[in-house]
Amino acid sequence: MLVAELKSFYAVARCGTVTKAAAQLGVSQPTVTGQLRQLESRYGIELFHRQGRGMRLSDAGQSLMPMVEKLVQQETEIDFRLRDASDLREGNLRIGATGPYYIMDTVRRYNQRYPGIDLTVTIGNSQTMLQALQDYRIEIATSSFLMDDKHLYRRKIAADPIRVVAHRNHPLARLGQVRLADLAQHALLLREPGSMTRQLTEDALQAAGVTVRRTLEIGSRESIRQAILCELGISLIPSREIPSHPDLAALDIQDAGIVMNEYLYCLRERQPVQLIARFLEMAPAAG
Fold it and tell me: Which domain CATH number covers 164?
């Protein structure tokens, strides 16, 4: 209410009459007159000297005018800023992903369509990304964990078969296909706890009753790749994440169909926000 009254005060001060001020504001003359009276009555001051149909600022009005002028300018700037944000001419969208493989094409197209939006992509494991989303540290998350939460919007964006990756000199590399039991006598490279790839690997081995001879925990995809190239062991990796390298062999698993599903999440309460909604429109959907 105070802002509306001050805007009427400012318009009358600039226009010199209530009639002109009302026309500028797009309201009725009684509305402007009533707002001025309420403002003067509430604080027991006189803002204008009435001279016929004209209005001249009092001393109190003169001292108030610079502050109100700043307020009106700030309101205009806020309006422009909100319109820019609504039209996606500016802003910042933070994305947390388990890897670039499933979401980067959407990031590319979003960046081309809305070049004024600053994009930040953080890579981490599935649990870390979901926690960051719920802590409001990111707006979009991709995760391999299937989470049922009424506060989360979820969409499956990929279904990726998992394969065994070994160095081309490894004894398994010449087989082309392997069974889970074939892994038992070899060193198995595993991601850190919290990784869905690790969980799927351990679940598949347990279901098949297979115990591997030795495991090594390696904390990132890049480190897993390097460890395989250094012939430290083999690993189970989703197909899209398998690096292209002449010394690496990717083997189908003959007796187990292990699939990594990737999901896109956002907080349901934030789904209508233009910054997020436009990204969701561009993101893929897997059956």
Answer: 3.40.190.10
- Count the Cβ atoms, other than its own, within 10 Å of residue 77: 10
Structural domain contains residue 135: yes
Q: What is the pLDDT of residues 24-72, one digit of tens each?
A: 889 999 999 999 999 999 999 999 998 777 789 999 999 999 999 999 8
176 and 242 both lie in a single domain: yes
Count of residues in the chain: 287
Query: How much is the pTM?
Result: 0.69
Using CB atoms within 10 A of its CB, is residue 240 exposed (0-12), middle (13-18) or buried (19+)?
middle
- Both ends of the chain: CA-CA distance in Å? 52
Can you tell me whether residue 249 is helix, strand or coil? strand
Instruction: Name the domain count of the chain.
Output: 3
* Residues 90 and 64: beta-carbon distance below 8 Å: no
